[in-house]
Amino acid sequence: MVIQQFCPTIPIFSSFQTLSKEGGPQSIYTSRVTSDDLTQLERVQHTACLFQEYVSKSIELRLTVVGRKIFCAEIDSQRSPKSSVDWRTSYDDLKYAVHKLPKSVAQKCLDLVDRLGLVFAAVDFILTPDGRYVFLEVNPNGQWGWIEDETGLPISSAIIELLIAGKVRMNKS
Questions:
Q1: Most C-beta atoms within 10 A of its C-beta, which of 28, 35, 97, 117?
Q2: Does residue 133 have a pLDDT over 90?
Q3: DSSP secondary structure string, 75-97?
Q4: Cα(53)–Cα(106) distance, integer angstroms
Q5: CB within 8 A of 30, min separation 6: which ones?
Q6: Which residues contact 44 (CB under 8 A, 6 or more apart)?
Q7: Residues 169/119, Cβ–Cβ less than 8 Å
Q8: pTM exceeding the 0.70 threshold for the entire prediction
């Protein structure tokens, strides 16, 4: 199969859509792929899916970029097996903290947001047990209110300041 040739080990899967179950929406969260799952890949052939290698986690990070400010929160998802693969599956098992991001990682995030022509973005990372920062995704409309509630990071104030200033940073290219 093409997927197996590209990535011989496919331990996690994410769907780009929400399914409907019994008339209501049902989310599909990131999950580990088993050997049995690989024999049934035809079941997802008509939808966009993301298969990627599983990355071991110490913690997960949600960076909220507002203008030139970065607010970085730790999401300790490894405290429970329920939240260890995808923290969204068990909010009650999570613990949050403010994270001091290395300047080099912060600068790369600002550069990425600049190149995308954005003034706001939610950027997700994994911090591995050996201290590597692994980029997962950037969302130009990511949620941030819950991070502010859990950590006290002044994200809403930064958004208000940016809007009052009336200045937006645009892609320089």
A1: 28
A2: yes
A3: EE-TTSTTTSS-GGG-GGG-EEE
A4: 24
A5: 12, 13, 14, 85, 86
A6: 13, 15
A7: yes
A8: yes
In order of 31, 114, 155, the CA distances from 14 in angstroms are: 7, 27, 28
- CA 37, 38, 39, 40 dihedral sign is positive
DSSP letter at 126 equals: E
Query: In this structure, which CATH number among 3.90.1570.10, 3.40.1190.10, 3.30.470.20, 3.30.1340.30 belongs to the domain 59-165?
Result: 3.30.470.20
72 and 48 in contact (C-beta within 8 Å)?
no
Q: Name the residue with higher pLDDT: 72 or 168.
A: 72
SS3 state of residue 13: strand
Domain boundaries, the chain: 2-52, 59-165
Residue found under tokens 């995308």: 116
Mean pLDDT of the chain: 81
- Residue 64: is it exposed, middle or buried by C-beta count within 10 angstroms (0-12/13-18/19+)? buried
CA atoms 114, 72, 130, 6: torsion sign:
negative
